[in-house]
Specification:
The structure holds two protein chains of two kinds. Chain A is of the alpha/beta class. Chain A contains five helices and seven strands, in the order E-E-H-E-E-H-E-H-E-H-E-H. In chain A, strands 1, 2, 3, 4, 5, 6 and 7 form a seven-stranded mixed beta sheet that branches. In chain A, strand 5, helix 3 and strand 6 form a beta-alpha-beta unit. The longest helix of chain A is centred in the middle third of the chain and has 18 residues. Chain A is globular. In chain B, the strands form two sheets. Chain B has a four-stranded antiparallel beta sheet with strand order 4-5-7-6, covered by helices on one side. Chain B has a three-stranded antiparallel beta sheet with strand order 2-1-3. The radius of gyration of chain B is 16 Å and the shape is globular. By secondary structure, chain B is an alpha+beta fold. In chain B, strand 4 and strand 5 form a beta hairpin. In chain B, helix 1 crosses helix 2, helix 1 packs antiparallel against helix 3 and helix 3 crosses helix 5. Helices cover 42% and strands 20% of the residues of chain B. Chain B has one domain: H-NOX domain (Alpha-Beta Complex). The chains are: A alpha/beta, B alpha+beta. At the A-B interface, strand 3 and helix 2 of A face helix 1 and helix 3 of B.
Chain lengths: 186, 188
């Protein structure tokens, strides 16, 4: 949309993955640069906004970040949460192999079924700081990203902030690119 | 938010709306909207007297936050509207009474009116709808409210289908609209 000379966009993004893979922590780190040690499950959906200003292009992007609960009890309402979603981070926990398997068997399937057909997705292996407990190798992550046609594969640590900003910016860049807008945020 | 937001809204309206958010988006979803509206203190409003009021400006801040966060989420807004009706008028009152009451529970510069009432079709006119006054926002929530309000006052074999002219949501006057509610008998 255009307001005066300024270009403005609202982009709805989701973060998907099994319970306790670190979806909320990734968003918290990105938005407030904070990290909570104690796990507290998301109840339903937590929605936050972040405005990105691009000076050189006189543009403003409002990100609507939907942190969707991973528990099975939200199966029915979750379908409605996907409407209008332009992109998602598909997150697994590098220390739990089952969460990696569920990326394809559950989350990617749901995203393709209920989101926009041109929706963009990135594969995220989170908790890269827990080096001694890693069960999913970087090679496996890379290989899955290629297999499912994810636009990129990134390993993150929500705890230390490693690659968190990069993950969100990459996703937004790809969403804009898909809409025909050339702005490099990466 | 720009504009003149004079008026009052009964606490029971706010409680019903928050309960509707809670049902559809769960606790964190409801909190997201209140946080965006900078009205977190209202999350315990159900403990207050339902017949007291908050000022309309505060209520409008919640609606604006909702419309911002639920941008492009018409299905969710429609479902929230249905739940809003369910919690605001939980007992069996007629559709006509509901329309009367909604005008008296939300006192501001708006009007909801039945302009035609036939056996199988009711036409409702909404002037300056407060749920979709922002440019770019369709009125899914209030449509859901109207559909459910009529549906629950009918016998179970009746089904409400609504019709509305396509709105140009970029027109500043798009919050003036007419909804036709058609009652169909569901033969099994």
């Amino acid at each position: 949309m255009v307001e005066g000379d300024k270009r403005k966009w609202a982009i709805k993004l989701t973060v998907l993955g099994d319970a306790a893979v670190g979806k909320t922590s990734l968003i918290d780190k990105y938005i407030t640069d904070s990290f909570k040690e104690n796990y507290s499950p998301t109840l339903g959906v937590n929605i936050v906004t972040k405005d990105i200003r691009i000076q050189e292009d006189n543009s403003e992007i409002r990100l609507l970040l939907w942190d969707i609960a991973g528990q099975d009890k939200y199966e029915l309402t979750r379908q409605m949460f996907f409407q209008g979603c332009a992109g998602t981070l598909l997150v697994y926990d590098m220390t739990r192999y089952s969460t990696f398997e569920r990326v394809t068997s559950k989350w990617l399937e749901d995203f393709k079924k209920y989101s926009r057909p041109d929706g963009v997705y990135l594969l995220i292996g989170n908790k890269s700081d827990l080096i001694d407990s890693v069960k999913v190798s970087s090679e496996e992550g890379n290989s899955l990203a290629k297999k499912i046609n994810a636009v990129e594969f990134i390993e993150t640590s929500a705890k230390h902030g490693e690659n968190v900003e990069k993950a969100f910016r990459t996703l937004v860049s790809h969403v804009l690119k898909k809409s025909g807008v050339k702005i490099d945020l990466e | 938010m720009i504009g003149d937001y004079k008026g009052f809204v009964k606490n029971r309206v706010v409680v019903a709306l928050l309960q509707a958010y809670h049902d559809i988006l769960d606790y964190d979803g409801m909190k997201s909207i209140l946080r965006e509206a900078e009205m977190m203190y209202l999350k315990d409003i159900r403990d207050k007297n339902p017949n007291d009021s908050i000022n309309f400006f505060s209520f409008k801040k919640i609606i604006s936050a909702q419309n911002c966060l639920l941008y492009d989420s018409s299905i969710l807004l429609f479902e929230i509207g249905k739940k809003f009706s369910f919690y605001l008028f939980p007992f069996g009152i007629s559709f006509e009474e509901i329309i009367d009451k909604i005008n008296s529970l939300i006192i501001t510069d708006w009007k909801v009116e039945i302009i035609e009432n036939n056996t199988n079709e009711i036409t409702v006119q909404v002037d300056r709808c407060i749920f979709c006054s922002e440019i770019g926002v369709p009125c899914d929530l209030f449509e859901g409210f109207l559909v459910h309000s009529l549906q629950k006052s009918l016998p179970s074999e009746h089904l409400v289908i609504y019709e509305m002219n396509k709105q140009d949501i970029n027109d500043p006057n798009h919050n003036n609209f007419v909804v036709k509610l058609k009652i169909k008998r569901n033969f099994k």
